[in-house]
Amino acid sequence: MADQTTSADIRTTRGAPAGEPKPDAAVVRDALGVGVAVGLSGFAFGVTSAGAGLTVAQTCALSLLVFTGASQFALVGALAAGGNPLTAAAGAFFLGVRNTFYGLRLSQLLALPGLVRPFAAQGVIDETAAVALAQPTRRSARIGFTVTAVTLYVLWNLTTLLGALGAEALGDTNAWGLDAAGPAVFLALLAPMLRSTTERTVAGVAVVVMLGLLPVLPGGAPVLVAALAAPLVLFFKGRTERRDNSDSAEGKGAAQ
Amino acid sequence: MSVWIAIIATAVGCYLVKLLGLLVPANALERPLVQKLSALLPVALLAALTAQQTFATGQTLVLDARGAGLAAAALALVLRAPFLVVVGAAVAVTAGVRALGG
Q: Membrane-spanning residues where (chain B) (predicted)?
């Protein structure tokens, strides 16, 4: 595990990934695939946001300015639940913090000029990072990042507008089951992250804390407390590993 | 008005954390603990949000049609369905259960 992390870090820290060059057309095709599929789901956001009581202008402002799906869904969900606006924003903000770490790796990989960075920043999200980090060369990574970001930005905003307008025409969005779109999006984002026991434990603890505190704490507070599952599980995992290591100091490399 | 405050606060916050990643020196956030925490924080938040938006109405815990919809989404994920199909399954099943009076 530690070795894998190190080699992956070296690969990206060097900036110019060692690999066979990939045809530009193939990179563009990959990027368009991701951009179109995810871009279309802006419709679900538009409908959900309008269903949560936000106006068309507020809904579109979120997709134009925030442009990171999970945070947008979290914000409208928290506002719909009657949360305090700043608590709601805090939950959305913490979900967005992961983009900093994508930015760190992309910054080395893409080696963007300083003037381009403030514009590229808006495109630093799950999908663009996934496409760019999977490319074998810097040229491919730059093409992959740009095509994914532009396709996704344009489509996500168009479909957000259509969804928000559509929701008004639909009337009672709950009758159409559209209130289930938000949690389904979260689950779809969460599922690929549940790779090891640590991730599953964090998710389990967070759910239990969330459901336990929901009737007791107001607005968006339970979500923020549930986020503490991450440092908590890390802390206990670190303690267990240290104890295991001192128990079997000579059994190095035998386990795992 | 308070909705606009939440929108602006989220927009500014989310933009700044995106920009931060591109501007800070590479080794500043490379500590293993920070990396692990940053990977696990979204896991906790997404799990909590999924639970909240499925089982909560205001501050009350409920099991309604959304639970069935989420189960359908989970099944679609296990079957490796594309993103849109997962969301579509949840919406369709929730609407179906409600239409049947669930």
A: 6-25, 37-56, 68-97
Residue from B5, B19, B40 to probe the interface with A (highest A Cβ count within 10 Å): B40
Judge if A100 and A148 occupy the same domain.
yes
Q: What angle do CA B10, B12, B16 make, to 5 degrees?
A: 115
The DSSP code for A67 is -
B45–chain A nearest CA distance, Å:
5
Q: Please state the ipTM of this predicted complex.
A: 0.88
Digit-coded pLDDT (tens) for A58-94: 999 999 999 998 899 999 988 988 878 998 899 899 8
B62 touches chain A (CB under 8 A): no
pLDDT surpassing 70 at residue A9: no
Chain mean pLDDT for chain A: 84
Distance from CA of B15 to the nearest CA of A (A): 6
Dihedral sign of CA atoms A77, A78, A82, A88 in order? negative
Same domain, A27 and A137: yes
Q: Identify the closest residue of chain A to B25 by CA–CA distance.
A: A104
What is the DSSP secondary structure assignment for residue A125, as one 8-state letter?
S
Instruction: Note down the domain range covering A203.
Output: 194-246
Q: Please, what's the b/e burial string for B79-102 (b: 16 or more CB within 10 A of its CB; e: otherwise)?
A: eebebeebbbbbbebbbebbeeee
CB-defined contacts A:B, below 8 A: 298
- Give tens-digit pLDDT for B79-101: 998 777 888 899 999 999 999 98
Minimum Cα–Cα distance from A107: chain B residue: B22
Residue at a domain's end among A144, A179, A214? A179
Q: In chain B, where are the structural domains located?
A: 1-30
Whether residue A23 is found in the same domain as residue A131:
yes
Number of domains present in the structure of chain A: 2
